[in-house]
Amino acid sequence: MVEVPGLDAGGATRLMARPEQIDIVAPDADGVHLPGKILSRYFNGGHMDYRIASDAGEIAVHASTAQDWAPGTAVGLRFDPDRLWPLEGA
Predict the structure, then answer these.
(1) Is pLDDT larger for residue 12 or for residue 70?
(2) For the whole prediction, is pTM greater than 0.70?
């Protein structure tokens, strides 16, 4: 669970995060908010575009080219609560 300042911790809210603000880490790393599995990756010049399957659906992440997560790899996703935005009516 990710706690977002200003939101009721007991409620359900759909959140938006920019793809470059999501960290891909090892599944057993500290602070993992959501487990996932790499579906695909594409080199896109200065970064890698990843598509990750998760319980929250498919998530797009832009990561450094220093990271190299192969398709099929189990990963963890970390979100910065200050970089999440609630979507009204979603």
Answers:
(1) 70
(2) yes
